[in-house]
Amino acid sequence: MKANLGTIRAVQIDLARQIETLPEVFRFFDISREAGMNTVVLYLEDRIKTEAYPYPSEVDTYSPKQITEMVEYAESLGLELIPVVSNLGHTERFLRHKELEGLAERRGGIAGRFSGNGHATYNTSCPLLPQARDFYDRYITEVSRLFPSKYFNVGLDESFDMGYCELCRGTKEAQLFTEHIRHTHTLLSGLGKTMMMWDDMFEQYPDALMDIPRDIVMCSWHYDFTDRFPAARFSHCRREDSFALYDRLGFKYLACPYPDISNIESLTAYARRYNPEGMFLTVWELSCQQLLIMHPLVIYAGTLWTDERELLPAERILMAAERVTGSKPLAEAAAHALSESFEFTGSGPMSGNDLTRHIEMPDGKAMLRTLSFTFLEKSLEALEEDSDGYRDAYLIRLKRFCLAHRINGLALRLMEYRTGDKSVDLQSVIEGLEQCKTQAKDFCKLHETLWQKRRPGFPAYSLDKQNKAFTEELDILTAAAQSAVPGEIGRLDVRFFLPDQTVLPKTRITLHFTDGSKQEIAHAIFKSHDIAKAYITHTFAITSGKTPEAVSFSVTGYGGTGIAHVDAVAGGSRFIPKRTGDVSGNVQNQDYILDDDKRAAFIGTPDMRYAYLNVSASEAENKLTVWFQQFQKSFTQ
What we know:
With 637 residues, the protein is α/β, with parallel strands linked by helices. 36% of the residues lie in helices and 20% in strands.
């Protein structure tokens, strides 16, 4: 083993977000062992049905007998299995049951940190409610008996809704968190287990580190590229030498990258400077993709941590892909796909936007990446289908990305036609949408076929939602195109500046017209589909037949929104900023909006951690209005 990386070589499989068949799980164990791993972490949440937890259906859970089969198979390969059962945050799967919703911190529908009154989804359990403690203690006790490992991970990550119920209100969140950790540590110690937990909440409550047992193992996840020190997960991604702090305080810890080549490489390099207990690759959320796409990245990470050879990343990923697929041509295509990031999320074409009213404008980088992925898609289609389904798994990954961007491009051309802002061949747009319908149908069929092959008998909730979103979006766009008239709508372009993708500012955009009327354009959190982009231009459809006078921005939430520029097209004229005013709350550099450059006004609370700990600051409204002047007639008039 290479020095300075400890002895644990772990990889996680997320069975909470997508349950897998036993053969699929066993195959993942085989890959993990081949990669040189000695530990597999099962992220379970509520996936084991027990006496204390009889509420979920059979198809949504594993029986204790099936878990025993997993443990026995893993042991036959020399793998240790560690369970993850959350008992604070990420308990939404427990709390969805009527019998357990009373354990939620926001029980009764009270407002939480990121949700309003009556919000239907509960995701954090009450740390003080005796019934909650009793339930989770019983469940964790039952689950712990199924795993011989001395370790038990209780999550505790992203526990955002502490301190809201009548029991917890008035107690400092840091104290609630500390006391919950101590209670859970006592429980696990009594069961003969060493407690593991994710460490992200210490960014909000750093003093809690001083008041908890030192034998807790911190699972320290960092998913950005680490150039010198890892970036925090929240709080403006401030960089901290966190492993040096753990070494100084006497905590044991694991360095936890995400299955991304640059993240694996850079966090591993950082970890070598310190004394971790080991490395831990965290595989998450594959409800719309197949687990097997991660197999080469598991090999990649494992060989990086155990193989003494000095290989370039390109050599290592190609070697890993070839070991998994057994085919050099397929391995080359898979390695290419795995070397790219597919950042956008959501079910539909572009994160569920209604593309007749709201579009993120593409940039040159997006255009070139789409072109590159289209060529890669064609090269994969030219390869023979393999028995395992690797080719189709990577095809699905590429087709979803490429199809979404094709639809987005056609939606933009349609908007340009409807605004009269640009000459557009409408018939070619309609034909393009029909082609996308065919492509979407083929994509959905390919996806469903592979699902039935790899996950027979398991429900495909996320897949069905994604496929439905593609169909519905294309139907809406086609109907709009078939009835489109030049100049029937106007457009408002807002250039956002948001270098920190961890902030959660909610921006309300309202357009005011010269006749005294107004139109609410949007009320949402605006982030790019490409998380590496700081500048994001969104274009919004606006009411026709009226003259824009001003646009107002109202920002609430955690962090703030940067606005670099705004302009509008309506009635064949372009409108640009003339002056700013009507300011309230936190607004900085408001006149930067007047010039179309990279300087940006900032609306909102600059210190995200302050806003997190002081909820009233996140609820405060920060406002700015920009008045327009008519600049010129549109170029096409």
